[in-house]
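Wed. Picked up where I left off yesterday with MFS transporter. The coffee machine is broken again, so keeping this brief.
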Amino acid sequence: MGLWVTVPGLLLLYFLTQTLGVPAFLAGATLLLPKLVDIVVHPLLGSRSDRQARRTGHRRGMLRWGLLLAVAWTAMFSVPGGLTGTSAALWVGGCYIAGNLLFACFQVPYLTTPSDLRIGYHERTRVFLFRMVFLTLGLLAAGVSAPSLVASGERGAYARMALLLAGGLVLSGLLAVRGVRRLTDHCGFKAPGERAHSVREDVRAAWRDRDFRALLLSYLFTGTTTHLFLAALPFYTQYVLRDRSLTAVLMGAFLVPATVVGPLWLRVSRRTGKQRGLLIAQGMFLAGSLALLPGRALGTAATLGVVVVMGAAFAGLQLFAFSMLPDVVAAAEARGAADAGAYTGVWTATEATGTAVGPYVYAAVLAAAGFVSTTEGTTVAQTDPALRALLWGFTALPAVLMGIALFFQRRYGLDRAAGRISAPSRTPASTTGLPSPDGHRPLSP
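Structure written out below (tokens, as returned):
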């Protein structure tokens, strides 16, 4: 997941506009349109995953389809030499659609797993802490290595990068399938209810859930903000900081803290609850975006410091949002409202929308300011309005978007409505490894 989310989000817009000669507006549309397909596909896959879980007692069948993602991944960056401009955009967009469909086959059942486990409120956070740490390691490996491998900006460099990292996609996918099986065997599997729902009913039930709706809208704007940050970073380092090699450095500064602060966020969760922790993380990211407004005048060292803080906030954004999703699902299932796969399908469709809207919004800002695209080996002097758009689109715009995310997140009330779940578990089962009275089986220490 770290590879697929990071590299296209970080490099694809830059690859289209600076190597393939695709105009900025068309490049943004090339990233957006495949994600619009996801809005329809993910809820369908969520409901299909529920049906498979009822029939087989697990969701691993769809997971295995995700192992083919490496094929679409490699093709997406291996654009034939004769294609530039519109034809290159069509090639990349077609491969991106295929890749997103295969990724969805993996992502939907994978993210449903914590909702399937017979575990409680804080143990769901522990599950997602491990997920967040390893996801961030994937983000770090991809975010540092990929820009270094394509530093020349040549087509061949992008193709070699994709081929080298494809092995990581396959290996991590195989490990994930095995890990999901072992985790569900250990903790127990909660099969969806016997009564099947139509996809339309599932989506309606999820949207009527007030807490899920608030969490969903907040995460839509959070995801839009973070993926705008990734897409804009190469432009910021090249045109504002005037040193493209800083792309890998800033990605490292952003992601290294995210790999180590997870336990601190877990302590925040146990002390204040996930809702307050998420609001703190969103506020930190908003403040960091505004702190980068001075651009090159801020200095490299101060810029690195700000990005480190934003990376620590990013870890909280991931951990809390994703660990709150199974809390909402558990509350909905207790009411008989919907099944886990249905909620996850709507969630991942929203996530896919954020990953596309962020780069698209930034591309639209560049296009409106007159940014000029180029092909490999050529450079173009950008106008002052384009350079200002580069800076403001990387700083002020993410701050506004994260402010909207904060607004929606404050409407989430599940932690307040069930304040008892914000306290650490006091059942003896939490230390014995035996099932608790409510049927939840704690994880091993």
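Quick read: Residues 2-189+217-411 form a domain with the Growth Hormone; Chain: A; fold (CATH 1.20.1250.20).
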